[in-house]
TrEMBL record:
Signal peptide extent: none
Presence of the UniProt keyword Transferase in the record: yes
A GO biological-process term: carbohydrate derivative metabolic process
Keyword terms: Transferase
SUPFAM superfamilies: UDP-Glycosyltransferase/glycogen phosphorylase
Coiled coil spans: none
Pfam families assigned to the protein according to its UniProt record, in alphabetical order: Glycos_transf_1
Protein name: Glycosyl transferase, group 1
The organism's place on the tree of life at top rank: Bacteria
InterPro entries to which the protein is assigned, alphabetical: Glyco_trans_1
């Protein structure tokens, strides 16, 4: 089966990481790639040195000269037709297509952008062209159904990652001081301000706790200002982008995931491989990545955006509904209570509880999160759509 992937490769994110794992597992020439960005991010380029990439908007593939805006959808259509693919997979974006491709099944892989798409003519037109949608989580499937009432099949192939390197397989127990960790792009949407308020609350309660914040992003300076305001400078480390994530997770006792929205948390899954229990919101696809009470503790978001702004000074701008998996409905976005997060940390400070959830995390990751399962299910789903055998 010849597969054509249409994707934005400008910067690394969850969907790009999954895509790279998928194409790098294939040893034949069955994957063709059209990149809708004009350049490929350096980190991505390093991880796919041998994969040929066609640029959607370039007049000449080796030169950055782009064709005029009004011609781009026709140029993309021509490049798709030249690929003569059996299946065309659009990864988490809505491309400008002049018409439905005449050859090959057109599929859309949703990794979370469905939360943000405007319900307009362009979106509806693209969805009307599709032969099918593959969702990265049940939450993604329900968002697609509730927002757009899809006219095509929409199976779920759960997001998974390859087993990370450098895992310390010795049984984990909490350090002194207790080490909290979070890793994400440093933007208000990720709720890092909730994590900082949680740390402050724990210290107010008399606990010996520190926090490491990995990643980089435009709001880092604002987070650093909040750290100073809460007098946490000697308790918080901003460690930047982690080239070696094993060091970060091996030294972390509890992983805090406090975002406003998260279709399926890859960093949470990663934490589980290292035996790190996760505190997370019961929102979107997070309960599908971490099982509440088994390898982490889930908390229902209750704090409004306005209330959080008063607590932290951070205004979270997410003008879309999120998915409430408990009640199977779309709701206005809210944040976790730092008081309830601190209560959850205290529960995990009990060594027996901590060790049980840490063991469960490792067992769960091995049994349920293996990337080979994703590849088999993904290929099986593609096969069902194309009705071909491998």
């Amino acid at each position: 089966m010849k597969k054509l992937h249409i994707i934005n490769l400008a910067k690394m994110g969850g969907v790009e990481r999954l895509f790279l794992q998928y194409v790098n597992e294939t040893t034949d020439d069955s994957n063709a790639v059209i990149c809708v960005s004009n350049d490929i991010g350096e980190e991505i380029k390093r991880q796919m040195p041998h994969q040929k990439v066609t640029f959607a908007t370039r007049l000449f593939n080796q030169l950055p000269l782009r064709c005029p805006q009004f011609l781009r959808k026709f140029l993309l259509q021509w490049k798709i037709s030249r690929a003569t693919a059996d299946v065309i997979i659009v990864w988490d974006l809505i491309p400008g297509l002049a018409a439905k491709p005449k050859r090959g099944k057109l599929l859309y892989y949703d990794h979370g952008c469905s939360w943000r798409y405007a319900d307009n003519a362009k979106t509806r037109r693209f969805f009307a062209m599709l032969d099918g949608v593959i969702s990265a989580s049940y939450a993604s499937k329900r968002v697609m159904e509730l927002r757009f009432n899809l006219p095509c099949p929409n199976p779920v192939v759960l997001n998974r990652i390859k087993t990370p390197d450098g895992i310390n397989h010795q049984p984990k127990s909490p350090h002194v001081p207790l080490r909290l960790g979070t890793a994400s792009r440093l933007v208000s949407l990720k709720g890092i301000s909730v994590s900082l308020l949680t740390l402050h609350e724990l210290i107010q309660r008399g606990h010996n706790v520190v926090m490491e914040i990995a990643g980089k992003g435009p709001d880092q300076e604002a987070f650093e200002t909040l750290v100073q305001k809460l007098q946490l400078s000697d308790r918080v480390t901003f460690s930047g982008f982690q080239h070696n994530v094993s060091d970060f997770f091996n030294r972390t006792d509890i992983y805090l995931s406090t975002p406003v929205t998260e279709p399926f948390g890859l960093s949470c899954m990663e934490a589980l491989y290292y035996g790190v229990p996760v505190i997370f919101p019961l929102v979107d696809g997070q309960p599908e990545a971490v099982t509440d009470g088994v390898c982490g503790l889930g908390i229902s978001p209750k704090v409004t955006v306005t209330e959080h702004h008063k607590l932290s000074g951070f205004h979270v701008d997410f003008p879309y509904d999120v998915y409430d998996p408990v009640n199977d409905t779309l709701v206005s976005p809210k944040l976790l209570s730092h008081i309830e997060c601190a209560d959850a940390v205290e529960k995990l400070m009990v060594e027996e509880t901590y060790c049980r959830l840490s063991r469960n995390a490792r067992n769960y990751s091995i049994q349920s999160l293996d990337f080979d399962m994703f590849k088999k299910e993904f290929d099986k789903t593609l096969n069902l759509f194309t009705e071909q055998s491998f």
